[in-house]
Amino acid sequence: MEMRIGTFAALLLVAAVVAMVARRLKVPYTVGLVIAGVALALFSIVPQIRLTKELIFTLFLPPLVFEAALYIGWQELKRDLPVIVTLASLGMMLSALVTAAGMHYVIGWQWSGALVFGTLIAATDPVSVIANFKEAGVHGRLRLLVEAESLFNDSTAAIAFVVTLAIAGGHSIGFTETLGSLALNISGGIFVGLVVAGFLLLLAGRTTDRLVELTLTTVAAYSSFLLAEHFNCSGILSSMTAGLLIGNVGVNGVISESSKEAVISFWDFAAFVANSLIFLLIGIREAQQSLAGMWGAVTVGIAFVLLGRAVAIYPLCTLFSRSNQRVDMKHQHIMVWGGLRGALALALALGLPPDIPHSAEIVTVAFAVVAFSVIVQGLTMTPLLRAFGEIR
To answer: What is the reported pLDDT for 8?
Structure first.
């Protein structure tokens, strides 16, 4: 236990130094963290903490999702909900199919393994997307669309992943059963988030002690996520719902005036710590992946993931071109390139059963796609945003 706490402290020190250097060099902080993680691994400085699906889901995702939702205004979200839901559901499935087709027809993977890879890599990652856009200083509708889509498409990805895993394992799942699972996953996640956050807001309304109120928001973030996952519902949707409720009702009403600034500052710090650790660990794990004999699959995987993202964005945004929810073409370009992959894809890949066709190759290609996404797309994201006039 002492060694593990010491390791966390050492990683946070590295993260603090990386943050200082990245700001001075004007490069994305997340990119600096991944590179620092790779450097640590190359020098054989590997912590006693391994990046696993359980670590990502139980420790890192809840505070990151909750913190992001705190800043989303309900009125803005409601206005763009049709676009967000369309991209997060139909768009995610289109992207998965395009990627799977590429891995099957070009690389020769079995359809079952190709579909598993397509679904786990199709969903844009809330951790990577939110960190990148927040650091770039993006505000307004573009940030809402990209961040909200990355939060919502988790449910579609989770159901699609379960379905494709079942198919790859030789089981059959009917269309009605799939729709029922999707509805339960989404509605259950939202319901759990509302119940947990609502109950804790009732408690928060009975105190003006900021430490108690901070504690209650922390309980809301983790308990909503873990409780939803326990009942096989969407933990990300649950934690997002809790964050939306506390951000729109709690911070703007129930939580005492003296505690508002403390709540915002605390969650900014919590997100910084979670982001720091997760991207350092991703970098360390990336350095340990062997790409020997896998360059063809990696290149095709990256190309078709980008193509799948384009197929998901451009045609579906055209559906709203004659409505007041029209998405500007420059925003569509940014959404295609800004659809980063990260911890969520790695968590699903690391949890693959070994009997899935091409399971080892899937993990290797998934890590390569994430490395390309975080480093190449991450480094070019800010210049792209500046070129389109979204930031100065």
So the answer is: 81
Q: Which of 47-51, 271-275, 314-318 has the lowest mean pLDDT?
A: 47-51
Q: Mean of the pLDDT values across residues 206-230?
A: 90
For the chain, what is the radius of gyration of the CA atoms?
A: 20
Residue 173 has what pLDDT? 66
Dist CA 309 CA 335 (whole Å):
9
Distance separating alpha carbons of residues 17 and 85, to the nearest angstrom = 39
Whole-angstrom distance, CA of residue 106 vs CA of residue 111 = 12
- 0.70 exceeded by pTM: yes
3-state helix, strand and coil shares in percent for the chain, rounded to the nearest 5? 80, 0, 20
Question: Is the distance from CB of 346 to CB of 282 less than 8 angstroms?
Answer: yes
Distance in angstroms (rounded) separating the CA atoms of residues 348 and 122: 11
Q: What percent of the chain is predicted at pLDDT more than 70?
A: 95
- Distance, in Å, from the CA atom of 141 to the CA atom of 156, rounded to the nearest integer, reads 23
Residue 286 pLDDT grade (very low, low, confident, very high; cuts 50, 70, 90): confident
| Domain 2-387 architecture | Up-down Bundle (1.20)
CA distance 342 to 336: 15
Q: Are 125 and 341 in contact (CB under 8 A)?
A: yes
Instruction: Note whether 368 and 291 are within 8 A (CB).
Output: yes
The structural domains of the chain, with segments of one domain joined by +, span: 2-387
> Widest CA span of the chain, in angstroms?
62
